[in-house]
Amino acid sequence: MELKDYLKEIKSISEEKAQLISGYFKKETITKGTLLLQEGKISKKSYFLQSGIVRCYVIDLNGNEVTTRFFSAPDFLNDYLSYFKQKPSEENYEAITDCEAWGIDFKDMQYCFHNIPEFREWGRMLLTLNYVSINKKMLSFYKNTAQERYLELLKEHPEIIQQVPLHMIASYLGVTKYSLSRIRKETARKLP
């Protein structure tokens, strides 16, 4: 999906305004393994992910990487708190696959927010959708089993199941890789 189409899909924006806003973004090729943002650094760019998968992760108290979120195309990604408050990030953002993205720097983002009302409304909608996603994940840890969380991820983002290493998916779901292996076997037996 192209950036201007994504802008129009999230919040109704005219073709002309979508084209104008798209002009502030620069196309980037991001290679697998690239850290787009490192914990302790301030986010300088926001991205529209046109292709590929990016994960967020933290290092827990035992020194283990724990995946907190995946972004798969088409999606808009940034560390909202770090980017908009210009404070150090508490997470790492890593390209899991090669990615094509469109980046916008903080200065241009601010210009668009202050001068293009449609972009401001689009940004509000995007923040709302981001909140809903984070809240849904949090609630799923209290209300759903690990298998239900896996099935939901499989249904909503099969590309993550297909392209992301199992240990990253396991940490995202809050299970060991051995438990995930068992869940995958049980699920495969039940599927037609």
UniProtKB/TrEMBL annotation:
One Pfam family this sequence matches: cNMP_binding
Domain Cyclic nucleotide-binding span(s) in chain numbering: 9-105
Classification via SUPFAM superfamilies: cAMP-binding domain-like
InterPro entries: cNMP-bd_dom (IPR000595), cNMP-bd_dom_sf (IPR018490), RmlC-like_jellyroll (IPR014710)
Protein name: Crp/Fnr family transcriptional regulator
Source species of the chain: Pseudotenacibaculum haliotis
